[in-house]
Specification:
Order of helices and strands: HEHHEEHHEHEHEHEEH
Strand order of the largest sheet: 1-8-7-2-3-6-4-5
Structural class: alpha/beta
Number of strands: 8
Distance between the termini: 43 Å
Largest sheet: 8 strands, mixed
């Protein structure tokens, strides 16, 4: 069907279960997931997990996971994933900001050859809160998380206003940007490299990548979808798996 459906959701979940079983038994070295319709999952009865990342974390017993988006020009890791913007204030904790910094630092060292990764951390509010005038999350949550990261030997600077920090990363000042919520990090990635960017899940005991885009039901069956991001996801999974064999 050209659109969300229960049968599509059931098929997607069955394919994912098969991939998880194959990874657990060592039949495959990595998992590359195609885009899913979260509405289809819901129609198929999967209401507990909103997406691949959360379901994979649960199935593999991963305590902390993060979504990192990898493009030739930029890397971004997210502090929160599939939560409503209206709920961010209630979900925002020091741990939610520290964990992706720790996971990104480890991935940059182990997978991307950065001996001393440099992280730039976004603020949540406009102008990074402007000394508390536009919100206190920077003082109350983000700055303590940065201090915790520094104590763990992680080089992290910020919080920076999100409307300027990505230019610093593009200029080579930072190896990765830590964004506070989904669209804050995804908009610059998709503007810069929609057909090259890859979603890499950090914190799992296996390698998992996926394209950075959705199902595109509006062009399904027309032969016009660009395969670039899926090709990049497959190639990154191969590269990371080969590193594990070295």
């Amino acid at each position: 069907p050209r659109g969300p459906s229960a049968i599509g959701g059931k098929a997607s979940l069955a394919f994912l279960d098969g991939a998880i079983d194959a990874a657990r038994t060592g039949l495959v070295d990595a998992i590359v997931t195609a885009p899913i319709s979260k509405t289809s999952w819901h129609q198929a009865g999967m209401k507990k997990y909103p997406g691949h990342t959360e379901l994979l974390a649960a199935r593999f017993g991963a305590k902390h996971v993060a979504m990192m988006f990898v493009a030739p020009q930029l890397r971004v890791v997210l502090a929160t994933i599939h939560e409503p913007v209206s709920e961010l204030r209630n979900l925002f904790t020091i741990g939610r900001v520290f964990d992706p910094m720790e996971l990104a630092d480890r991935a940059l060292r182990n997978w991307f050859g950065c001996e001393k990764p440099r992280l730039a951390v976004c603020g949540l509010n406009p102008h990074a809160g402007e000394e508390g005038r536009f919100g206190d999350e920077e003082r109350r949550v983000i700055t303590p998380a940065i201090l915790m990261a520094e104590q763990a030997g992680i080089q992290a600077d910020g919080p920076f206003p999100a409307d300027t920090v990505f230019t610093k990363a593009l200029a080579g000042e930072y190896d990765c940007v830590v964004a506070m919520y989904h669209d804050q990090g995804l908009i610059p990635i998709k503007l810069l490299a929609r057909d090259e960017a890859v979603n890499l899940t950090l914190g799992l005991p296996i390698i998992r990548t996926s394209p950075d885009h959705g199902t595109a039901f509006d062009i399904a069956g027309r032969g016009t979808a660009h395969p670039g991001s899926m090709i990049a996801a497959i190639n990154l999974a191969i590269d990371l798996a080969n590193q594990g064999r070295a």
